[in-house]
Fold each of these.
Amino acid sequence: MHAMTKIKWHYEQMTSGIHVALRSEKELANVETEFQDVSIFETRHLGKVMRIDDGIQVTTRGEHIYHEMMVHVPTLVHNRVKNVLIVGGGDGGSAREILKHHGVEKVVMLDIDEQIIELSREFLPEINNGAFDDPRFELRIGDGAEIIPQYSNCFDLIVLDAADPDGGASETLFTQSFFNNCLSALKSDGILVAQGGTPYFEPYMMQSMVSRLTQAFNNPAGIYMGGCFDYFGGSHAFIWATRSGTINTLSLEEIESRFNKADIQTKYYSPEAHFGSFFLSKDMREYVNQA
Ligand code: SAM
């Protein structure tokens, strides 16, 4: 099952008419779990890659961009994050980043597939980097959509770190009822953040999430942008939603002060990247307005 050396190409259908092919230099794992097909392989330029079904989930060369922007932007905006829920996130990158914050007391991660966590532990330790063994970390195995109704008014931050809903196990995490339950699980001043895909290739994903979250939260959801390495398409959209329909867009000086106080090490995230992420290009603003 593990450690094959045959060179092979892995294809991802980005969108209709665009396929990306990655040459694997070494296959590390190919597993058919109860829920999904998982492969982990080494590449020359992207480092190790984890693919689930037909989609790239994470690369060791570029995951920091996604995970740092997904986690540090809302955490520093909120500024008093203690209790966090991650839905999906089986590679452990989101957990690793949130656990860097000393004020965080508890991180609950709901993932449907225990084997993803085991494979990530074994083959991608540079991504989870001890997060699964942190005493503040709790893993619950099951469909996030079925477990989340058990939480009410619990979390300062909810991170939706699931693969795109392309007919796989994550479909349940993109439904209106799931987003309604996220709202109930969030504290009154909490922030929800979700990966919204790569809008230049798949604007419909970001638009449908903005529109569903807007409906669930009964107030406008919005986006901020980050660089994109793992998924191609130039830039990555992160969706935010709050009960008030606003997010505290801090001044650069305020972000710098909070970041310095947090005293965390990052590779991509910087106060400037954070500040700039809320200023949308004209086309991106139009995509959001069409949601
Ligand atoms: N960053 C990635 C992306 O943008 O594609 C997501 C990576 S993470 C590995 C996705 C995780 O979501 C996987 O570990 C998978 O098992 C989990 N997942 C899929 N469907 C789920 C569900 N219904 N409930 C909870 N976790 C789910």
Amino acid sequence: MKQSEHTDGKQSPEDFEIQQKIKEFGSIPQHIAIIMDGNGRWAQKKGNIRLHGHKAGVESVRDVTESCAQLGVKYLTLYAFSTENWNRPSAEVNGLMKLLVQALRDEADRLIRNNIRLVTIGQIERLPKKCQIQLQEVKELTESKERMQLCLALSYSGRWDITEAVKHIAEDVAAGKVLSEEINDHLISSYLSTAQIPDPDLIIRTSGEFRISNFLLWQLAYSELYITQTYWPDFRRDELYEAITSFQKRDRRFGKVKNGHNKSLASTVIDQIRS
Ligand code: FPP
């Protein structure tokens, strides 16, 4: 399949057929979160500067976003810039911010055409003004879109998210709006930046690292992990399909036993027949 067929919004019959098979095979994760890693190494392996890898990474963002929407994924969260990424050399940080502005300008129409809403989580006020303005513009332009929500985690960290939630809960307890005995899982989730979004069903990490890297620490409690050696700029829809079919084969029990029974399927059937 030619890459152009992936990215121009026109879907090839072959790709459509693959997606239909995946949908028949099992349920599609409602929320996929991705740690997009390996841009720098991808570029360096090719003898290029790291920014070249980030530029190529935008192509993967486009292809994965579009194919998630086509498959019926409802929420896609991308770890685009972590709180820790501010410690990178300023040339790389500035380059990434310019790339983000450019990508938002280039992709706004495609998001609208594909009926995708853009939202963000993180300390957006730390981003350069130009980024903030561009983000705001695309958020407003796509506000009514409801096929899928694309959430960019920018200047985000899981510990920051939890810390902010704790501060706000403490304020509300002090103001008498919340009783300390009312604090539970659900209440904490409702104070996080992802309050409006269900927890991820599937978390994908590229470039072979086995870490969560301060991403959605609270929200990933029961997410299925898919780790691939592929660097992010090489991660395209065919590997997304691999990740989803791998997810579909998992037995998600959320700490419980299947269907509330502490029995295998075979022993359940034997019991039913003998009773
Ligand atoms: C990690 O690779 C990637 C990032 C820190 C930035 C991701 C940004 C993009 C894909 C481009 C812009 C994004 C959007 C949403 C338009 P790395 O640099 O840490 O790679 P390395 O581990 O090989 O050094």
